[in-house]
Every structure is written in structure tokens, then in C-alpha cells.
Design a protein that fits this description.
With about 240 residues, the protein is mostly helical. The chain has helices at about 20-30, 45-50, 55-85, 90-100, 105-130, 130-140, 150-160, 165-185, 190-200, 205-215, 225-235; strands spanning about 5, 15. The chain has a single domain (about 40-230), classed as Urease accessory protein UreF, CATH 1.10.4190. A two-stranded antiparallel ribbon has the order 1-2.
Length: about 240
């Protein structure tokens, strides 16, 4: 049995996804996946405390900036890692990992991506048994490479045979859902509000993918000073629900 899925509503030829593949993708992108996503807010906690995000409209604007930032940093690195893994280019994976961390200007972002990345790599290595993923994880544990979450996603998704669009969508979904999940605990919004935001953001994913897919590691850009300032405030905060 195979599931026929159309990735573009205007496409004349649908794509085919194997049910086992679909289940693996759900497993690795589920919020219940034990990689620690729920522990971070991507700067939202400080934005709420400072009165910058206080309702559904301001939350949607904030999340929109987060996913755009993710597309042109995490998304680019993840795509590069997937391509490198598919080509058995181990050096390319390490280079994507190193270069991505240079785009993480605040300590909270670096801590988040490395902690989640190693957890995902541990889980994926146990599930998939990919030798290249295992070697990269060992290097991350020895602190020879950062061990970032997007690179872990790229290598793991390549190992299970996922394509680039699937990987990119998973990254975008994760970035948005991290903030929206946190919003339910620190912003006056409902589950319906967060789901509407997530649904609308999904409509922008194809355009972001097409742009990110053309970028190399030298083209990654992360100019979001307000989010970096909020992260700095969070690091010094005394009342926190989320890690810094």
C-alpha cells in the first residue's frame, strides 16, 4: 500500500510517499519526540514579559520573523547537511554544523540548537543505525563539532530517504511550533489562535523553501537584532519558565 500525496495544489503529477516513511517523519517531527523542544521559547518569554507580544496578532508577527530567520540559517544548513549525507560527504556535514553556529549570535540559541541536536542525533542513531550519523554524534559529544539540531535533522532525514522539501518543512514546523507551544503558557492566546497562525504560516513555506534551496553556506543571514536583544534579556532574567 502506498499513499499518494500532492505537494503542490497546482501540480499535475502527485508524489508518492511510502507509509513507513510517513510514519518515520511523523515520529521525528512530533512534539512528543524527546529532544527537549518544549524547554525553549525562542525568545518569546522575554517578548511577552516586555509587552512586545501580547495577543494573537503580535504573536503571529513574532513567529513569522522566527520562521523566516530559521529558513535562511537553519534551513540552509539542514539542506546542505542532507545533500552532504546523500553524497557521503562527511566533511560537508561538519562544515555545515560549524558554519551554522556562527549565525547563532546569542548564547541561548547556541545552547538550544546544540542540546536539541545531540538529543535528536542520539535518538536517530539508535533508530536508524546510520554509521555516518553515529560518527558525527561521537564528534559532537567530544565537542569537535557543535552538534546543531538542523544538521542532525538533515543527516537523519537523508538516512531515512526523505527529500529536501520534507526536511525544510519539518524545520519550519518545528521552529513555529516551539514558539506557539510556549505562547500557550505566557501569552493570552487560545489553542485555536495558535493553530490558525500555524496554518497560515504553512502557506508561506514553499516560497521560503525555493529561496533557501538556492543559498549556499556563505549566503546564510541572521539579522534579527530584536530577537537577539530579547535573548540577552532572558539570560539575565530572574523569573523563567524556559531554559536559557
Amino acid at each position: 500500500m502506498r499513499i499518494i500525496m500532492c505537494t503542490n495544489m497546482n501540480a499535475s503529477v502527485p508524489s508518492v510517499i511510502d507509509p513507513a516513511m510517513l510514519m518515520h517523519l511523523f515520529q521525528l517531527t512530533d512534539s512528543a519526540c524527546p529532544v527537549g523542544t518544549f524547554s525553549f521559547s525562542n525568545g518569546l518569554e522575554s517578548a511577552a514579559a516586555e509587552g512586545l507580544v501580547y495577543d494573537a496578532a503580535t504573536l503571529e508577527a513574532f513567529v513569522g520573523e522566527v520562521v523566516r530567520l530559521s529558513a535562511f540559517t537553519d534551513g540552509v544548513a539542514a539542506l546542505h547537511a542532507l545533500r552532504s549525507r546523500s553524497a557521503e560527504d562527511e566533511a560537508g556535514i561538519f562544515e555545515a554544523d560549524r558554519r551554522l553556529l556562527l549565525c547563532k549570535l546569542n548564547d541561548e540559541a547556541r545552547q538550544m540548537t546544540c542540546r536539541m541536536g545531540r538529543k535528536l542525533a542520539e535518538l536517530a542513531a539508535a533508530l536508524v543505525g546510520d554509521p555516518l550519523l553515529a560518527r558525527w554524534l561521537e564528534a559532537a559529544v567530544r565537542r569537535e563539532t557543535p552538534g546543531s539540531f538542523p544538521v542532525a535533522q538533515g543527516v537523519a532525514f537523508a538516512a531515512i530517504g526523505a527529500d529536501e522539501r520534507t526536511l525544510f518543512c519539518a524545520g519550519q514546523y518545528g521552529a513555529a511550533n516551539t514558539v506557539l507551544g510556549a505562547a500557550l503558557r505566557c501569552v493570552r492566546v487560545t489553542h485555536y489562535d495558535t493553530q490558525r497562525i500555524l496554518y497560515r504560516l504553512g502557506g508561506r513555506t514553499e516560497a521560503l523553501y525555493r529561496e533557501a534551496a538556492e543559498l549556499g553556506l556563505d549566503d546564510m543571514h541572521a539579522f534579527t537584532p530584536q530577537i537577539d536583544i530579547l535573548a540577552a534579556l532572558h539570560e539575565k532574567g530572574t523569573q523563567r519558565m524556559f531554559m536559557n
